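Typical record was shown:
=====
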Amino acid sequence: MLIQAGSISLTSILEGEQAIAQDGNVLESVGVSVDCAASLSALGKRTWWRKIQSGKISKLMPDAFGRTRVPLADALRLAVVSLSDEDIQVLLMADAGDADAQDDIGQFFLQARFVDAALYWLQLAVKQGHANSMQILAGCYARGDGFEKNEQTAIKWLREAAMRGHSIGQAQLAGLNPET
């Protein structure tokens, strides 16, 4: 069975369906970068590469960024968390570079207590100037979630978020400096 691009569901991915473009051309199986697959699973990137080299995991054509991709179905089978169809859509957008989606997936993993995966996605969003991710990263440094507790680095990220107009970051920073 084929599905229309943009209407990807968890069931269709796990059943190995292919997506078809609007013009009717069959697209390659839905894939994600090796980095994305590693963030979903308890496996490191080196393990994913060994699985690719041994033929246990297929290697798909590179994405627009030149990154090697693997089938999303394989990544989901090895995932440490369950993802809804909506979560999968956000994950695909995050892997494609959407900073808002990276922030959303980072928060998803943080709430699920998978801090390393959360930090991977949050840091990608921060590299694109995403103020909310900066504010969340500040909290991670302040609490020592995934990093050694570091108040100076926490304040740095809080200041960055505040300078970009993040209202919570501004309030938190003001709370640290009540005289300003």
